[in-house]
Give the backbone structure.
Amino acid sequence: MKWLIFIIIMIQTGYRFVLDGIKNKQRKKPLPIEVSDIYDKKRYASFLSYEKDYDHMKLCNRMFTVLVYVFYLFSPFLSYIDTLPLNVYTRFFVTVLSITLINRVVSVCFDYYATFKIEEKYGKNKKTKEVFMKDEVVETVLDLILSFILYIPCLYVLEHINEWTNHFSITYAQSLMLCSGLLGICLILYLIVLSISYMYLRIQYTFTELEDNELRHKIEELMKDCPKKVKHIKVYNESKKSTGKNAFLLKMLWYKEFGIADNFLDENSERELLAVLSHEIGHLKHKKNIFNYMKYIVLCILFIFVVYMIPHGELCIVLSKRVLESFGLIHMNYDVIFTCLGVIISPIMYICSLYVNYVSRREEYEADDQAVHNGYGEELITTFKRISSDELIDVYPADFIEYTSYDHPGMYHRIKHIQEEMRNRKP
């Protein structure tokens, strides 16, 4: 099992090197006419230098990740924890917290370098070191809270499901009832996670309701025929941290709000803002189709699989014991089980992500069409070009990388699509 996990990790690492090679080869090609005016010669040189700096940092980060896995798999770390007088819960959290602490310390170092060396070098950073440390501490604390919220119920269920099912001697109907109850608990946990994520956003930024002015009335006018209205339009203080300019739609169950970066309001025209918000309203008007329902079908299949597997839970116990034995462990350590399972199914998850990204790109094109329909096609293109130049975005990614890694269309295909849509709508 150790070597299987190691081989999968090395294949994934090698695959990322292949993607790097494709990306570097693509950068040598001239920009198509649709995006050729985004960068002048000097700014494009800055973009290439910016990407190169990040590539070096990502390479170091990638190598460190491999080293952490090597430490996890082949060092006496897990065996030592196995000898400690711990129960199944504390053993799990000691393992998780130890690895998380290592990863977190190094992650903060990489984040610090990216923020104060790379981002500052290219004039993109406005964070102070105090703000940086505050954000890192808040993120770490919230990650730990989320871990406890998600993992403790999961461990409790795994520890008691044998007892609840009388050693898995239950019918499929009883298994269905049990899984339905567990699904209800999962939904409650999901709501808690959403609430914490929302709270984290509010800690990071200060949001202020957009005043009742002409701009607000124009935004509300764009939504007049929209079945889902957004009541809150808020401005947040992105200028305190970066030069980023963004406007987004936050959706959390029944609650929806527009978030607009103060940088966007200060540096872009009103029509450019309305163009971006028209795009977001396009998402509100989106009608689900077969592509969207496919993910629900997959979730239903997964639920049925779990219902089927519970009466055969002995097989899972046997497999878990085999995994622990391959690590030389005597006591149950769920972190080892979860880590091995996560690595083994990662190729399947990657394949699923290809479909999810495809659907997401389709919806982005559809939302862009809404902006064109509202008469803001040119402004949307102008906004995309300006943001791309300001943020040093890769405007012409290789098709293979875009189709396998992007959940939004690349800027070249996106602008080309908007231009074609504008031509089609001309009388």
Notes: The first helix runs from residue 2 to 27. The mean pLDDT is 91.
